[in-house]
Automatic annotation (TrEMBL):
PANTHER family on file: FATTY ACYL-COA TRANSFERASE RV3272-RELATED, SUCCINYL-COA--D-CITRAMALATE COA-TRANSFERASE
Lineage: Bacteria, Bacillati, Actinomycetota, Actinomycetes, Kitasatosporales
Superkingdom of the organism of origin: Bacteria
Official protein name in the record: CoA transferase
Region ranges (Disordered): 334-384
UniProt keyword tRNA processing, yes or no: no
Annotated Gene3D superfamilies: Crotonobetainyl-coa:carnitine coa-transferase, domain 1 (3.40.50.10540)
GO molecular function: transferase activity
Keyword Transferase part of the UniProt annotation: yes
Record organism: Streptomyces boluensis
Pfam entry (one): CoA_transf_3
InterPro entries according to UniProt: CoA-transferase_III (IPR050509), CoA-Trfase_fam_III (IPR003673), CoA-Trfase_III_dom_1_sf (IPR023606)
Length: 773
């Protein structure tokens, strides 16, 4: 089968993790990716994840001090379709200039992935660092813990989100180029990735205080977390939403909790800050009354998502990821047989595939002269097209509820698409709690259980370019929302479906949710290390799956733009969970053991982790902490006891820094050449004036109180930038207008409204519900 990106050439000038991940996706879907490295090679070459992030690429070495090699590189980029770079300073390090490259090659899509913000990083050197990004963005201080202090997450989750989301934006620019003939510059920063991963954490009212994070290692929601059963084994419980929360209480024999005055007769009382400790203790005790198999059986019979807690090292051997193509093997010239994650999304007509191992350094130097292509001619002749987003002009129907699928719709709307949220006549049951995931769409409230509702949706789908849903295969066929039914009248339609466990395998028919798959895929056990498993406060699998869903849809649309063909695509939460752990689950002979965490993990070395100061915490990121000397620190102004350092370097460093204020410590470490930042609270990040100027968040009116703050810009496009805050629609707010646009007569719309098949609603009050994580 053909590849989606076949015939495209990408030049990858990035290092470490996020940028190479973009190149990985491009290579997986057929682009020729040339990894250009300095003589010393990518610093991440010794990282086990390198084998995954750079698979299927070619490696050519370029010494920036060699004028001939610089000229060769310039010619390579001037003939390429895509150039990946950390930022313009890194481009200049190779003797290249962004404006000159784009003048020479107007079709070039130049993609920058800065490690922090477009204006630069607040740490010396400005190199990519997951730990520094997490601390500076407020996320280290937002993870649930025992003591309420910041936590170091061992999975470099924000870099993985940056990789997949930057790929989606890259392909969106390529799609726009199909009609305009012009490339553009695309920037997806580390903070853009954090905003994507942690969108709900940045969605607050202007007077919100930072929430108490000392709520335990399982988080603040006692039916949506992991629990210890009576046999000493852990399980993930996915009781989220009124229906499932009520069922969990019933299964545990705790329905009487709802009669407690403190609960107010509603399961919403479970996450009331005054009730969290009480509710968690009651539910924890109930799970201890039976073994894990009992609870998995009971919860499954009630339709509540659940699963056993597993180890990340066992994950690729589990029959479910194997059954859906998430495990693959390649022969690596340096590592031998490498077992690694496969492609995490499936296009049935043009599937991606792992085409080879990561290259040895300079493995393709001998063929370098054949790689540069002639400059493409600027044949457009017309002024460059301007548009409110690279997807402007595309219509996408999104039938998803809860988090992952609606948030994919929001991201597509952020890229300029006209996204229609198709929801039940009573509305998405999570639309209040999930306010932030539903911004920017128009709403059609429709009864898809009825034949009239199904026929009505088919009329709408015929006006769409893509349809996105999160229905299991059996349900989509029952509701006539499967690809075959939808394309009977619209053969060029792209359909993308999200499921918990993918299509096929022993778990393919079961419902899956973020929290349960965190447990099953080994994320919780890896973070907890030898202590209790730790649940991620972020809905990290859901939000990353939203970016994965956007990429899936855009790849399908790109293929259609080139060929006229629609196709069916699918992706899964387990695919995303596997992708997020690529560095941990990849295996080969002799690989070092993956890093694991601990209870309230701060890192494994004070000079590469979180460290307490006199007035808070800082995150330090020494490249090689063991090689840092006491004299080096003392000369930089850190009051270090040299004798104590010789006896116990770790204790001496912690003691010295504990006596300094955070700013003093950061400045002194910078003088020693060691990057560090303060671990900020979210309230401080939201008021950072530099970030406000870059539209990190948008401030919008609230119906009944202080303004609402929510993530603003997720990416920047030099020519097709959409701007301004996106509102959440009311359920059915746009029903009549959307049906009219699908060709339904006014009389027919009235009939459907009177029959209750369609609901016409008003605007949604713009207000926030209580936190659930």
């Amino acid at each position: 089968m053909p590849h989606v990106l076949q015939g495209l050439q990408a030049v990858d000038l990035t290092e470490r993790t996020a940028g190479p991940l973009v190149g990985m996706f491009l290579a997986d879907f057929g682009a020729e990716v040339v990894k250009v490295e300095r003589p010393g090679g990518d610093p991440a070459r010794s990282d086990p994840g390198f084998a995954v992030w750079n698979r299927g690429k070619r490696s050519v070495v370029v010494d920036p001090a060699d004028p001939k090699r610089r000229d060769w590189l310039r010619r390579l980029v001037e003939g390429a379709d895509i150039c990946l770079v950390k930022d313009e300073a890194a481009l200049a390090g190779f003797g290249l200039d962004a404006a000159a490259l784009r003048r020479a090659n107007p079709r070039l899509v130049l993609v920058s992935v800065p490690p922090y913000a477009a204006s630069g990083a607040p740490w010396p050197g400005g190199e990519e660092s997951h730990g520094l990004l997490g601390a500076a963005s407020g996320m280290a201080c937002r993870q649930a813990s025992l003591d309420g202090d910041p936590v170091e997450w061992v999975m470099p989750q924000y870099l993985y989100v940056q990789g997949v989301w930057a790929t989606a934006c890259t392909v969106a620019a390529l799609l726009e180029r199909e009609s305009s003939g012009r490339g553009q510059q695309v920037t997806v920063t580390g903070l853009n990735a954090v905003a994507t991963a942690a969108v709900s954490m940045y969605t607050v009212t202007a007077d919100s205080a930072d929430p108490n994070t000392a709520v335990g290692l399982g988080g603040r929601h006692p039916t949506y977390t992991r629990h210890l059963a009576g046999d000493g084994k852990w399980l993930g419980c996915g009781g989220l939403g009124v229906k499932f929360e009520t069922k969990v209480l019933q299964a545990l024999g705790l329905s009487g909790m709802l009669d407690e005055p403190r609960m107010g007769g509603s399961v919403a009382g479970l996450v009331d800050p005054a009730n969290i400790d009480w509710a968690t203790a009651r539910i924890k005790e109930a799970f201890l009354t039976h073994d894990r198999d009992h609870w998995l059986r009971v919860l499954t019979e009630l339709g509540i998502p659940c699963g056993p807690l597993l180890d990340s090292q066992e994950w690729l051997d589990h029959p479910q990821p194997q059954a859906i193509g998430l495990r693959t093997e390649v022969q690596d010239p340096e590592r031998g047989t490498v077992t690694m994650p496969g492609v995490p999304l499936t296009l049935t007509r043009t599937p991606g595939r792992v085409t080879g191992a990561a290259p040895e350094l300079g493995a393709h130097d001998a063929e370098a002269d054949s790689l540069p292509r002639p400059k493409p001619e600027d044949a457009s002749g017309a002024p460059a097209r301007l548009a409110a987003g690279p997807l402007a002009g595309y219509r996408i129907a999104d039938l998803g509820t809860f988090v992952a699928a609606p948030f994919a719709g929001h991201l597509l709307a952020e890229l300029g698409a006209d996204v229609v949220k198709v929801e039940p006549v009573d509305g998405d049951p999570f639309r209040a709690t999930g306010y932030t995931y539903n911004r920017g769409m128009r709403s059609l409230a429709l009864d898809l259980q009825s034949p009239d509702g199904q026929e009505t949706f088919h009329r709408l789908a015929a006006t769409c370019d893509a349809v996105l849903h999160a229905l299991r295969p059996g349900v989509s066929h029952k509701l006539r929302l499967d690809h075959t039914s939808l394309t009977a009248a619209a053969p060029s339609l792209v359909t993308a479906s999200l499921s918990g466990y993918g299509e096929g395998g022993p778990l393919g028919e079961l419902p899956g949710v973020d929290m349960v798959i965190q447990a099953m895929a080994g994320m919780m056990s890896r973070q907890g290390g030898d202590g209790e498993p730790v649940s991620n406060t972020l809905a990290i699998i859901d939000t990353t799956s939203a970016a994965m869903g956007a990429l899936t849809v855009i790849l399908g649309l790109y293929h259609r733009a080139r060929t006229g063909e629609g196709q069916r695509a699918w992706y899964s939460l387990v695919g995303t969970a596997t992708y997020l752990q690529s560095d941990a689950v990849v295996r080969y002979p002799g690989r070092p053991a993956p890093e694991t965490g601990s209870t309230d993990h701060r890192g494994h070395h004070p000079l590469d982790g979180l460290c307490r100061t006199a007035d808070g915490w800082i995150r330090i990121a020494a490249e090689d902490p063991v090689s840092v000397t006491g004299q080096q620190l003392a000369e930089a102004g850190i009051p270090l006891d040299q004798g104590a350092f010789a006896a116990d370097p770790t204790g001496a460093v912690r003691q010295a820094l504990a006596g300094l204020h955070s700013e003093q410590a950061v400045d002194a470490l910078a003088a020693a050449g060691i990057p560090a930042v303060r671990a900020r609270k979210i309230t401080e990040v939201l008021r950072d004036e530099d970030l406000l100027r870059e539209e990190f968040v948008h401030v919008r009116p609230c119906e009944d109180g202080p303004a609402i703050i929510a993530p603003g810009r997720y990416a920047t496009f030099s020519r097709t930038q959409r701007t301004g805050p996106l509102q959440v629609p009311g359920a059915g707010e746009h029903s009549s207008a959307l049906l009219a646009s699908a060709g339904l007569a006014a009389e027919r719309v009235t009939e459907l409204l009177e029959a209750g098949v369609v609901r016409e609603g008003g605007p949604m009050p713009q207000r926030l519900a209580p936190l659930y994580r």
